[in-house]
Amino acid sequence: MKSKLSLYLVVTLLYKEANTLPNQLKKVSEGKLKRRIFHLWDMFQNDEISVNALLNKCVR
């Protein structure tokens, strides 16, 4: 099955994702990303955010 995404769109999305890597690596090395994910998980378990919100916030 062929995808309906154009090559231009795929390249654009990959470029945006690649640009976030240095920031994410810095956060991981500083422990900030881990703290953020655990904080979001706590919010989810306390019914403060939905599953959808949890996943959306984790990918940002």
What descriptors fit this protein?
60 residues; mainly alpha; 77% helix; flat
What does this protein look like?
The chain is mainly alpha-helical. 77% of the residues lie in helices and 0% in strands. It has helices at 7-30, 32-45, 51-58. α2 runs antiparallel to α3. The longest helix is centred in the first third of the chain and has 24 residues, at 7-30. The protein is flat, with a radius of gyration of 15 Å. The model has no long low-confidence stretch (mean pLDDT 84). Residues 1-20 form the signal peptide. Keywords: Signal.
Q: What share of the residues does DSSP label as strand, in percent?
A: under 5%
Query: Percent of residues in helical segments?
Result: over 70%
- Molecular shape: flat
* Uncertain stretches of 5 or more adjacent residues: none
When the domains are counted, the total is 1
Oligomer: single chain
The first-to-last residue Cα distance is 30 Å
Order of helices and strands: HHH
The total strand number stands at 0
> Number of DSSP helices?
3
Biggest pleated sheet: none
Mean pLDDT equals 84
Structural class: mainly alpha
What is Rg? 15 Å
In short:
Keywords: Signal. Residues 1-20 form the signal peptide. The chain has helices at residues 7-30, 32-45, 51-58.
Secondary structure layout:
Blueprint: H1 7-30, H2 32-45, H3 51-58
Helix pairs in contact: 2-3
